[in-house]
């Protein structure tokens, strides 16, 4: 094992970035009420309900998606003044500022309506993340590691978790918007606990022997629902793809069904692995799913 | 078979009573675009998108639940003026008026986030409904027949489908709000087609031999999520109950889990059969599920 990196001293657990993703909202509330659940010896923990007004309204957001407001330039732009743009500035002051943050590690809790199970999303590269991925996968084999880290420099990443020096997303589904499922809540709690344990072991140089390589998926691109020239949706996710997040889609396999019954094949040239299949929140932008490749995370 | 009842001459297929239940909205749109799909020889069919502004806003409703606005007294009350109360009056004029309707049969298309599969809900009693239940169950064995018919006189029933001389609800799930699933859409289409076929066969006195009795469930009451004295939710549906709509819950079986981990047993004295388990739209009223008994529909 190589030399110890900087110790993690401050951790923030964030729920309710989206006001209708109930697991994170309830888990943040529980941790606030029972701080001993997140207490560890080597770091301090704060919790935050990020978008209380959207939760009050039982909506994802009031004016714009809070989890798209954290680009460095946007945080510095005084003309971005709507509710979520304002919340982003407040949260950046509270947990950041981005690039020189008082929070060493942010755990941002999210739900999806897609059948993704417990998914750990890494939005930045680095050795700490690789160790974390290996630890979480070892402790929770049902977890899927998702990398979305090398498309943007951190300052251009719009996600809340990029405000911290380190940050990850815990994404668990399937759970309809505005519903709380016990199984999903328990998976989110379990993954969060593993992350906290990892940080404690990392800080105290007590990490167990970890696997040398960890399977992960890496985000390639998103694809849209079939639309006509007027921008109206004319089809839907094919039922053979529905609920089969992470399962391979081969070139030529049916991926959409048009409302007239026509099957539309996947037109890519490589097998891909879908995530966020038919996610409710992505209909705004007519996104059907994300496509990923399989990769290996190699530990030094 | 006893003497023929009055023939059904006018049928209305209604989608989008709730603006974020996408299957009915898309199916109504498809039937409007391809009227040959719903055309039969013995009756005329109209279709209606009931709450276009709620669909535009991607919400269940703007001001109040449209499917609770159709009590005869409320329809006549000029002081009830919000958007859905106004829509109810317009729809009553268009398809009704309730009690003397120009529409003989209303098919109202709905989705639930609960794992209910294709469910035919009968909100009024009578021989026509019994024949319909037997026909649909024979043609579509996966269908569940739900009776909610003898709690209210028709004039006190607040549902849209009670505006017609006859009316039923086609309720299909699980489908998250604001999502379109192909499997759910196909089940809704299939059940609607069976209902139209039934009316045609009934009108032309060509009904096949039907089973003498049909299993159904009958609504008893709804139960609430666990709450504290301040009215805050302190627990959730137990994971052993989640997704198990129609499966028996015996006295003493766990039915809720409190956020502190305590399991809460079902405190009734009879085995019951749940529906609408953890339905997203019912959180407004803190409803956890509906409880039903098993009954038999006996054909004369």
Polypeptide structure, described:
Two copies of one chain form a homodimer. Chain A has 300 residues and is an alpha/beta fold. Chain A has six helices and twelve strands. In chain A, the strands form two sheets. The first copy, chain A, has a nine-stranded mixed β-sheet. Chain A is globular, with a radius of gyration of 19 Å. The relative contact order of chain A is 0.15. Chains A and B meet through helix 6 of A and helix 6 of B.
Summary keywords:
alpha/beta; about 300 residues; homodimer; about 25% helix
Low-confidence stretches of chain A: none
Q: How far is the first residue's CA from the last residue's CA of chain A? A: 8 Å
Biggest interface, CB < 8 A: A-B, 26 and 26 residues
- How much strand content do the residues of chain A show? 25-35%
The helix fraction of chain A, in percent, is 10-25%
According to DSSP, the number of beta strands of chain A is 12
Name the shape of chain A in a single word.
globular
Short note summarizing the structure:
The structure is a homodimer of 300-residue chains. Chain A is of the alpha/beta class and 300 residues long.
Topology of this protein?
Two copies of one chain form a homodimer.
Chain A: E1 10-15, H1 22-33, E2 44-49, H2 52-56, H3 72-75, H4 83-95, E3 105-111, E4 117-122, H5 127-139, E5 144-147, E6 166-173, H6 182-203, E7 213-224, E8 235-237, E9 254-258, E10 263-265, E11 273-275, E12 287-298
Parallel strand pairs in A: 1-2, 1-3, 3-6, 4-5, 5-7
Antiparallel strand pairs in A: 4-6, 7-12, 8-9, 9-10, 11-12
Helix pairs in contact in A: 1-6, 5-6
């Amino acid at each position: 094992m190589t030399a110890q990196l900087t110790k993690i001293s401050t951790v923030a657990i964030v729920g309710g970035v989206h006001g209708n993703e109930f697991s994170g909202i309830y888990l943040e509330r529980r941790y606030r009420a029972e701080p001993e659940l997140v207490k560890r010896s080597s770091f301090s923990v704060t919790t935050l309900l990020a978008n209380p007004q959207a939760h009050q309204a039982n909506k994802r957001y009031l004016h714009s998606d809070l989890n798209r407001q954290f680009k460095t330039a946007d945080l510095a732009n005084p003309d971005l003044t709507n509710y979520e743009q304002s919340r982003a500035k407040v949260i950046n002051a509270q947990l950041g500022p981005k690039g020189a943050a008082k929070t060493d590690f942010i755990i941002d809790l999210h739900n999806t309506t897609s059948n993704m199970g417990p998914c750990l999303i890494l939005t930045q590269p680095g050795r700490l993340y690789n160790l974390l991925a290996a630890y979480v996968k070892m402790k929770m084999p049902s977890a899927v590691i998702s990398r979305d880290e090398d498309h943007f420099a951190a300052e251009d990443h719009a996600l809340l978790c990029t405000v911290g020096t380190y940050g990850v997303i815990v994404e668990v589904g399937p759970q309809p918007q505005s519903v709380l499922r016990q199984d999903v809540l328990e998976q989110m709690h379990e993954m969060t606990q593993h992350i906290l344990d990892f940080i404690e072991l990392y800080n105290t140089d007590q990490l167990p022997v970890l696997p040398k390589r960890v399977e992960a998926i890496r985000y390639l691109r998103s694809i849209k629902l079939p639309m006509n020239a007027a921008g109206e949706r004319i089809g839907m996710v094919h039922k053979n793809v529905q609920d089969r997040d992470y399962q391979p889609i081969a070139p030529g396999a049916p991926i959409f069904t048009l409302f007239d019954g026509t099957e539309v094949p996947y037109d890519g040239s490589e097998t891909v692995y879908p995530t966020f299949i038919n996610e409710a929140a992505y209909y705004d932008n007519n996104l059907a799913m994300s496509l990923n490749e399989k990769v290996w995370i190699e530990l030094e």
